[in-house]
């Protein structure tokens, strides 16, 4: 009723306004539609007509705008419902993927992708399914499609690069990482991945250049020391490569600088000695090897010294170093072992056995020690003692047990176990030589061959 009264009141106001305008505007107005066509109407009617036409146009525009807005809202709501439905299917597929149900995951993710082929996350998840199934090419194709949809997407590019890397397609992986760095020059993850590939391919100069950028970008944080150590390692590899290429001065300078920064770097000390040796600076090489052993107690320095002096036919100088070093540290068992081996090589059997038995007396037990002791006893013509040492070296007991090895982790056991005590795998203990025995075939000889006569046949 109120609405009706409002419209009635509006009509009365409009009518009064019309009469008022007609009364004060008695003249007529001629309107020409063309040069030959015209209409003459009272001014009040013309004014009201224009007003009504304006109101009509305004209402039509309002109605059209409201309709368009309503249509957009309906479409947006429909798209939201459709997107939520696809997202639900996608989440279910990812859940199946994480639970290991690849078949169901593939079905759900394929359904999500069919409903919205432009979803990057669906491409990525379906690619993960394909890769876990072993369908590498399908996975790469899906990742390439995701890359076309999102050319700058970091997740897509990293996934594609790591997939190429896993497949040993290093040029393709390197190209992706370089593309990442082209858009984000300080992306340390991409730089590290690219550096590691370069290192794997032996591109040490390029890897070192990239490591300098990484170190510059990693000015603070827990990884700084690790990156500095990596820098030294790459510098060493460049020096080692220079040594292989005959660039001795570069190798020497770099190794010396590395040792100044990290005195515990064994490879740099060894390579520096090798470079001096190639440069025929024997005294410098000897000094480096000797100082390296005194500082780090690593057997490689003794091996290098022994090789150098034996080739120079100067074992007396090596013996002198061993003995002087032994006086400095009588408890150096590693030196005793090498000194015993050297004495054995020089037929100084008694002194060799003295040093070797000193090592054995500490409870140290390994194959090569027993072989050295056996050789010493053999040279003393103590055959029974030599046999005993050979048996220890070969781990032969009175029962001639063959032992068992875990087919999963390689651990050795004298007794069989239903479950490997080392890696906890079930039913994996086998005879160490089982595969070799299974693959062998008995030769079809025309007659029995006496033991020990096979070589003659």
UniProtKB/TrEMBL annotation:
<keyword id="KW-0812">Transmembrane</keyword>
<dbReference type="InterPro" id="IPR011990">
    <property type="entry name" value="TPR-like_helical_dom_sf"/>
</dbReference>
<keyword id="KW-0472">Membrane</keyword>
<dbReference type="GO" id="GO:0046872">
    <property type="term" value="F:metal ion binding"/>
</dbReference>
<keyword id="KW-0479">Metal-binding</keyword>
<protein>
    <submittedName>
        <fullName>Tetratricopeptide repeat protein</fullName>
    </submittedName>
</protein>
<dbReference type="InterPro" id="IPR051012">
    <property type="entry name" value="CellSynth/LPSAsmb/PSIAsmb"/>
</dbReference>
<feature type="repeat" description="TPR">
    <location>
        <begin position="154"/>
        <end position="187"/>
    </location>
</feature>
<dbReference type="InterPro" id="IPR041166">
    <property type="entry name" value="Rubredoxin_2"/>
</dbReference>
<feature type="repeat" description="TPR">
    <location>
        <begin position="120"/>
        <end position="153"/>
    </location>
</feature>
<dbReference type="Pfam" id="PF14559">
    <property type="entry name" value="TPR_19"/>
</dbReference>
<keyword id="KW-1133">Transmembrane helix</keyword>
<dbReference type="InterPro" id="IPR019734">
    <property type="entry name" value="TPR_rpt"/>
</dbReference>
<keyword id="KW-0802">TPR repeat</keyword>
<feature type="repeat" description="TPR">
    <location>
        <begin position="367"/>
        <end position="400"/>
    </location>
</feature>
<feature type="transmembrane region" description="Helical">
    <location>
        <begin position="44"/>
        <end position="71"/>
    </location>
</feature>
<feature type="domain" description="LapB rubredoxin metal binding">
    <location>
        <begin position="404"/>
        <end position="429"/>
    </location>
</feature>
<feature type="transmembrane region" description="Helical">
    <location>
        <begin position="5"/>
        <end position="24"/>
    </location>
</feature>
<dbReference type="Pfam" id="PF18073">
    <property type="entry name" value="Zn_ribbon_LapB"/>
</dbReference>
<keyword id="KW-0677">Repeat</keyword>
């Amino acid at each position: 009723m109120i609405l009706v009264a409002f419209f009635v009141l509006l009509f009365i106001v409009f009518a009064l306004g019309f009469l008022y305008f007609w009364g004060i505007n008695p003249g007529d107005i001629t309107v020409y539609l063309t040069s030959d066509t015209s209409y003459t109407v009272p001014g009040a009617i013309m004014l009201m007509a224009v007003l009504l036409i304006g109101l009509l146009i305004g209402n039509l525009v309002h109605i059209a705008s409201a309709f368009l807005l309503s249509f957009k809202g309906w479409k947006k709501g429909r798209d939201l419902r459709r997107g939520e439905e696809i997202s639900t299917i996608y989440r279910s597929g990812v859940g199946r993927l994480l639970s290991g149900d690849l078949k169901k995951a593939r079905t759900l993710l394929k359904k999500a992708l069919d409903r919205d082929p432009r979803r990057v996350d669906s491409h990525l998840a379906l690619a993960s399914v394909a890769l876990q199934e072993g369908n590498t090419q399908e996975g790469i194709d899906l990742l390439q499609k995701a890359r076309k949809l999102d050319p700058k997407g970091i997740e897509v590019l990293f996934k594609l690069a790591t997939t190429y890397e896993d497949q040993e397609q290093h040029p393709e992986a390197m190209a992706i990482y370089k593309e990442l760095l082209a858009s984000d020059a300080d992306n340390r993850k991409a730089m590290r991945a690219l550096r590691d590939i370069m290192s794997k391919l032996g591109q040490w100069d390029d890897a070192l250049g990239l490591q300098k950028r990484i170190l510059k970008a990693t000015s603070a944080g827990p990884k700084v020391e690790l990156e500095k150590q990596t820098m030294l390692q790459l510098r060493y590899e460049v020096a080692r490569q220079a040594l292989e290429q005959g660039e001795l001065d570069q190798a020497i300078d770099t190794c010396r600088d590395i040792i100044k920064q990290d005195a515990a770097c064994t490879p740099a000390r060894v390579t520096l000695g090798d470079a001096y040796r190639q440069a025929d600076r024997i005294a410098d090489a000897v000094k480096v090897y000797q100082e390296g052993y005194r500082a780090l107690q690593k057997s490689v320095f003794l091996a290098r010294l022994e090789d150098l002096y034996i080739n120079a036919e100067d074992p007396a100088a090596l013996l002198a170093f061993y003995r002087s070093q032994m006086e400095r540290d009588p408890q150096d068992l590693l030196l005793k072992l090498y000194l015993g081996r050297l004495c054995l090589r020089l037929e100084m059997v008694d002194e060799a056995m003295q040093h070797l038995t000193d090592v054995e007396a500490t409870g140290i037990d390994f194959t090569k020690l027993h072989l050295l002791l056996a050789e010493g006893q053999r040279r003393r013509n103590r055959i029974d003692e030599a046999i005993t040492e050979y048996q220890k070296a070969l781990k032969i007991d009175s029962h001639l047990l063959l032992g068992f090895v875990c087919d999963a982790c390689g651990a050795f056991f004298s007794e069989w176990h239903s479950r490997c005590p080392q890696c906890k795998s079930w039913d994996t203990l086998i005879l160490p030589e089982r595969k070799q025995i299974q693959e062998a075939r008995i030769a079809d000889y025309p007659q029995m061959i006496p033991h020990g006569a096979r070589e003659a046949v």
